[in-house]
Design brief:
Layout: H1 4-10, E1 13-16, E2 28-29, E3 35-36, H2 41-52, E4 56-60, H3 66-75, E5 79-81, H4 87-98, E6 105-108, H5 115-120, E7 123-126, H6 132-137, E8 140-141, H7 150-160
Parallel strand pairs: 1-4, 1-6, 4-5, 6-7, 7-8
Antiparallel strand pairs: 2-3
Helix pairs in contact: 2-7
Length: 204
Amino acid sequence: MKSLAERATRVRLLVLDVDGVLTDGGLYYGPNGEELKRFDVQDGLAIVEAQRAGLAIAIISGRRSLAVGRRAAELGIAEVHQGAGDKTSVLEALRERLGLAPADLAVMGDDLPDLPIMRVAGLCLAPANAVAEVRRMAHWVSRRPGGGGAVRDAVEWLLRSRRAWPPSVKSDGGGAPQSGLRRSADGGPSRSSGRAPRARRSPK
């Protein structure tokens, strides 16, 4: 069985839920009924730097929101899948299209609808506010909540496993980097190697 550090080093694609992971999970409405979202700027910087380091980012959400599309565009996230009634099918199609094995995937979710796609991934992550069922499945649980730095925490840990954090910061979390999945000469995703430091384990 692979160690947690080995799992982290293998990851090439980090898949994020939105509500409760990239946001605090609250539903906010403007005066005209428009849905509003609050995102964490520290998460944004980490997402940009992750993609610069070769760790691709994808969003898979069961809801639809214009704010999510806008924030993803700001951060250079190309794989944005909203209104996903069957998250597992979306993730499997994405994995096959990018030529990735399940062990190349990390999924961060917070609630019951995320459990099926967490089962597909080689590494399961959760924010501090995740429900008990998700925390039990997770290999790693952040000390920080969704919308409050949990994604930043996860990205730092994943990049430290390949000695790619801290980065040489060139962004404030608003700019779009190059695509996180670099293609090799044969058309498949390129890989890098590196030793992983000791990682924090989730409580069981």
